[in-house]
Amino acid sequence: MKFAVLDFETTGTQSADDIIQVGLAIIDHDYSISQVYASYVNPGRPIPPFITGLTGITDADVENGPSLEDMMVELVPLLNDVVLVGHNVAFDFNFLQNALDRCGYLPFSGRILDTMDFLKILFPSLSSYQLGFVAADFGIVHDRPHQADSDALVTAEVFLKCLDELNALPVLAVQRLSDLFAEEDSDLAWFFDGIREQKEREPVQELEGHTYYRQFALKVDDWTDIEPPRSEPGDNPLSGVSFDEYMEQVQERLRTSLSHYEARESQNQMIESVMTALSEEKHLLIEAGTGTGKSLGYMLPSLYHSVRNGEKVMISTHTINLQEQLRERDIPLLTRAVPFPFRAAVFKGRGHYLCLRKFEHKINRRDFVTPKEDLLTAAQMIVWLAQTETGDDEELNLGSRGGDFWETVASDSDSCLGRQCPWFRKCYYHRARQEAGTADVVVTNHSKLFTDVKASHQLLPAYEHLIIDEAHHLEEVAGKHLGMHMKYFTFVHALTRLFKDSKNGQLPVLRQQLMSSGHEKATEWAYVIDSLYPAMVEVKETWDKLSDMLFGMLPERSDAPPGETGQFSARLKPSDKPKGWTEAEQLENQIYVALGEIVRKGDKMLQEIKDEQDDYGSESLVTDITGLVKDLAAFRDSLRFFIKMDDLTTVYWLEASGQFKGKSLQFYAVPVDVSQQLKEMFFDKKKSVVLTSATLSVDKSFQYMIDQLGLQEAAEEGGLLTSLLPSPFNYREQALLVIPRDFPSVKGSVGDARFVDMLVDSLRSAAEVTQGRMLVLFTSYRMLKQVYEPLKEALASSKITVLGQGMDSGSRSKLTRRFQEAKASVLLGTSSFWEGVDIPGEALTCLAIVRLPFQPPNSPLLEAKSELLQEQKKNPFMKLSVPQAVIRFKQGFGRLVRTAKDRGVVIVYDTRVIESYYGKHFLYSLPGPKIEHMQTEQMVPRISEWLHTEAGS
């Protein structure tokens, strides 16, 4: 086979656009790149400026280039008898067919392959399939991105890398891939078939490195073979070793294994404080800023305590990201540093693990909803099974439709066959559970922590000591879990998986199996199934009607970008129900009654089938359907609880995005105050709970957190320690905070013309001095929108790009990556950019905070909490709004200095920090940057001077 890898640069993406450059790399039969053809093409019209900006190709470059006809004379012979390959090949193929047609050639009729498909299938864990990212990841030099010859050559090298990966797969995985695509009339199917034949002709491969089971190649053996972390149960590696001796050994090993290791004062203080809390059985609130190295700060004492005393320590993080970071970065480092073997296990919610039984069932039955995307996802997962040791969905880059696919194959308790399952010993969820059971330290997340409490502690291994990282989120997560949170699709997915139409869905499949089983009761059961269909169709219609009606009650918010859930939101008050609520109650009642009937009939029938049949074929199907029927019953009860609005200690609200209207509806019912429940569940029950985060204190005091989390009693009885660690960074020299004191103020979420003009002008001049590399944080999306276009225009001549959340891309990670890759850019973000975004080093020099991050006063939870404080004769603004905003402000400020070498400037345009009586709380809570205020016109010269004087000179 000979491959031709093609890439065009064009004047645009429409069929009327013209080719301006072509690159073609030929891969010969021996898999070497034998030639690269490149040529400019004169399109006979000017190149649009944005294309020049993207590709660097100017009118002057193409001026002396050949015409399309002349170029095609050279290109066409090269396409003889080749398989055409491209990255997103449909784009280049369309332009090729157009050009062939315009120049009087026959259309290209050969095979076509897309490197995007190959990358998705063969590298299922790559975080991006964008060519530049892939090249960097594979170590391929890509010196001129968006130039056709360079792109074609890089794509050819990427394609060869994919072929290597394909050849390295076990033959069983290749056969599975070939079977999967066999029914497709596609070039991908043809290609996999060819590779399979080739593989089957090779001599038998080494079978090591994989386990083969039920026609799958797996990376893991049985989890029942997992050994405990230390072989001799009686041998405690820490008996007679004091904590100080252990820490000396650890630090010695860190010094030898890390060339740049230096003990940090604040980290040592943290290690001491955490150890004290664990050994004296006290709770601890500890604020540790960026750069403290807090993961090791709590992991080292936890390991000592756990191994020394045989008491497991549980560690909980807010985000899965941090869990992954502990798995990828911190646990391997600890393995080198700690002088004895130990096990730290990561344990997530059950839905993160693949259920092998469901997956096998799905691909054997080809139960695909959107065939093209589902086939790719299934192929991705077949390859992934030969690579993964955890079966955790975070390892997969699932793409847009992959999430729906995952939901149908994720592990869940309602459809688990337990020991009856043929996959039981290979099961990823039970493996994770077994590892957690034998581990010294278990890393989980806040969500799982609360799911475990609600399941009467059946999910996590027993623990008495708990470390909560990112603890400033604990209260919010507690509310969501102790309350109720439900989405439009939660219900629809369960319904459509049971019944999509008379051929698709679990019930039609069961009906078919029953009828072919020849069981005497089969017809009777089939009759029951048939009677469920119309009821399900009706329930779905009523649900759609109710959702659209509720969406109609929601006003739009000003602080959320389009597409985000929460762009529309409304609090519902039991005492003051919105107009038309009676009708909503009637629709809910119809749903309640109908679902009751479906659940009753379904349960009765499923129980009968279970009692009568012992054939595995439908056992797994009956189990899955039973789980889905349980989901319907749970949904029915949740919806009733929400619509009734009986509980006065609960706040009810709805959120949705304008993009999908009623279909994006989310229902929340959250306890107004969770402090009492947190106290009862954790602080009264556990020997020691350590809460840490970079932002826990307000005004150097922990009182706000003590109130919110229910730690008051522990504090009064001497059971609570607190510690505010000094920052390891020298903020006075690393960060300058400037406030333009004559800046106009704003009322509401939209700026007037004068405010917007001054803001755009000030941001422009600041961005020019810092050469972009600037993050601007807004509290209102409307204001971001007001600034975006004018700022873009103002910076166009300086070659500084402006990226806006909700403008250029909805996804935070994509925007952050584009910002980091661009040489000079300004990123405008709202709420979700205030924390969790990590842009170390040069990429970020200036942070602009447009307004102090107060939550909008009509945010449902804030409003309800304020009402509660008023009843207690407390001032909600000072007790709640200010502390919340201060913590968010500190999070925002924390984006700037991420390492000891970073230097940067923060501009706060909100003059309330120096004018209002509460402003000092914001500035006093920061870790000591240099703070100056001045007239707006003095600001940029001062920033320029500060940036150009070297630190310390």
> Could you tell me the mean pLDDT?
89
Helix content: 40-55%
The proportion of strand residues reads 5-15%
Number of helices: 36
Could you say which overall geometry the principal axes of the C-alpha atoms support? Answer: globular
List the uncertain runs: none
**First-to-last CA distance:** 65 Å
Q: Using DSSP, what is the number of strands?
A: 25
Placed side by side, the strands forming the largest sheet appear as: 10-11-9-12-17-8-18
The largest sheet, given as strand count, sense and whether it forms a barrel, is:
7 strands, parallel
- How would you classify the helix and strand content by structural class? alpha/beta
Report Rg. Answer: 31 Å
Motif (DEAH box): 469-472
Cofactor: [4Fe-4S] cluster
Catalytic activity: ATP + H2O = ADP + phosphate + H(+)
Function: 3'-5' exonuclease.
Provide structural commentary.
49% of the residues lie in helices and 13% in strands. It has 36 helices and 25 strands. It has a seven-stranded parallel beta sheet, with helices on both faces. α21 runs antiparallel to α24 (616-644) and α29 (753-769) packs across α30. The longest helix is centred in the middle third of the chain and has 32 residues, at 581-612. The chain is globular, with a radius of gyration of 31 Å. The model has no long low-confidence stretch (mean pLDDT 89).
Secondary structure elements and pairings:
Elements: E1 3-10, E2 19-27, E3 33-40, H1 49-55, H2 59-63, H3 68-78, E4 83-86, H4 89-102, E5 112-114, H5 115-122, H6 131-138, H7 148-168, H8 171-181, H9 187-201, E6 211-213, E7 216-218, H10 243-257, H11 265-280, E8 283-287, H12 294-309, E9 313-317, H13 320-337, E10 344-346, H14 356-365, H15 371-385, H16 399-409, H17 428-438, E11 441-445, H18 446-454, E12 465-468, H19 474-482, E13 484-487, H20 488-498, H21 506-517, H22 522-551, E14 568-572, H23 581-612, H24 616-644, E15 650-656, E16 666-671, H25 675-683, E17 688-693, H26 703-709, H27 712-716, E18 720-724, H28 731-734, E19 735-740, H29 753-769, E20 774-777, H30 781-796, E21 801-804, H31 812-821, E22 825-829, E23 846-849, H32 860-871, H33 876-893, E24 904-908, H34 912-915, H35 919-924, E25 930-934, H36 936-948
Parallel strand pairs: 1-4, 4-5, 8-17, 8-18, 9-11, 9-12, 10-11, 12-17, 19-24, 19-25, 20-22, 20-23, 21-22, 23-24
Antiparallel strand pairs: 1-2, 2-3, 6-7, 13-16, 14-15, 15-16
Helix pairs in contact: 5-7, 5-15, 6-7, 8-9, 8-15, 11-12, 18-19, 20-24, 21-22, 21-24, 22-23, 23-24, 29-30, 29-36, 32-33
Region (Disordered): 560-579
Family: Belongs to the helicase family. DinG subfamily. Type 2 sub-subfamily.
InterPro entries: ATP-dep_Helicase_C, DEAD/DEAH_box_helicase_dom, DinG, DinG/Rad3-like, DnaQ, Helic_SF1/SF2_ATP-bd_DinG/Rad3, Helicase_ATP-bd, Helicase_C-like
